Structure prediction request, 170 residues.
Amino acid sequence: MRPERIESFSCIATRTARILILGSMPGEASLQAQQYYAHPRNAFWPIMAGILGFDAKVPYPARIAALRANGIALWDVLASCHRSGSLDSEIESPSVVVNDFEAFFTAYPGITQVCFNGGTAERYFKRRVLAIPGMRNLHYTLLPSTSPAHAALSLARKTEAWRAALATVR
Prediction:
């Protein structure tokens, strides 16, 4: 039986955003909570808290406000897809629909850097988005995935990589 089509969230951005962080597609915990990076073992919020100087346990709206205040936008490469479970490896590639990045970059012209939260986000962006004629050239950075499934690096090593990539926000 084919898995149900899942859909990502709207972007989180302000007109002053300079950096866009892209994931691939929210996992089951995030979809249920309707919040980016809601899985309790995902390192995204602890990493952002350490870099931006807020408590990772503050309510979700306060975490989003911290990103916005620091010129960081948040979105996913995929608008929708078929996937069983939460793992990127379960995304059915033929079912993938990417978000409208032409409209996004037109609406947020201050973004000059795109950071990928893991290799799947980067691969889909390069294959499906950069192939669009007229896409403007930006600075792209692949960062270690914050997913609990990516346990090859410690939280400290992930934070170090993310801090270096986001150095312009502090």
User: Anything to note?
Assistant: The CA atoms of residues 48 and 56 lie 8 Å apart. Strands lie at 5-7, 19-23, 72-76, 78-82, 97-98, 113-117, 139-143. Helices lie at 28-33, 44-52, 60-69, 101-107, 119-129, 155-165. The chain has one domain: 5-169.
